[in-house]
């Protein structure tokens, strides 16, 4: 059973800890001195993170046709997921239209069911058409309960169809297709989970100056 949760609600839940209310005393002068440096360093780190994630996905033969033909895509370098009975996922990503960064997105999912362990993975969502792209960037997009993703692993080629997705090693004839205008790929970063499903993932969207709403 899936329980819907907005990205902001789930983010707050995941961030809650005994140290959440601890405050450090910092003078306004120190904050002013650190702001510029922190902004520049975080920006460079973020850019490098997304570039590295996209390069990893581009190394998978199954994704190459999508990078070449998709109208746009959203990439999430790290989606954290884990739980014992109650599992939650949260990730921060960027949305691209034909290679141009047009805004940021957050991913959130809360589910109750048989789950074990923890898993961190990267996720990319390709949009087949302009309509699919705008459906995602509406700011309130959510995958249905039956949504599935193609799991990519080293040495394995991916295959997706209208009824599901999986990875098969040594299958040179494998292919991936759009389902309802979108194709989703994940790449595990480590950990173990009884079930990893993208069903119920909800997304927010915050456009930047490159975004064209028309």
From TrEMBL:
The segment annotated Disordered runs over 25-46
Q: Which domain of life is it from?
A: Bacteria
> Which residues does UniProt call coiled coil?
none
- Where is each Ysc84 actin-binding domain found? 109-210
Q: Where is the composition biased (Basic and acidic residues)?
A: 28-40
Q: Which InterPro entries match?
A: Ysc84_actin-binding (IPR007461)
Q: Where are the transmembrane segments?
A: none
Keyword list, A-Z: Signal
Q: Does the keyword Signal apply?
A: yes
Q: Where is the signal peptide?
A: 1-22
Entry protein name: Lipid-binding SYLF domain-containing protein
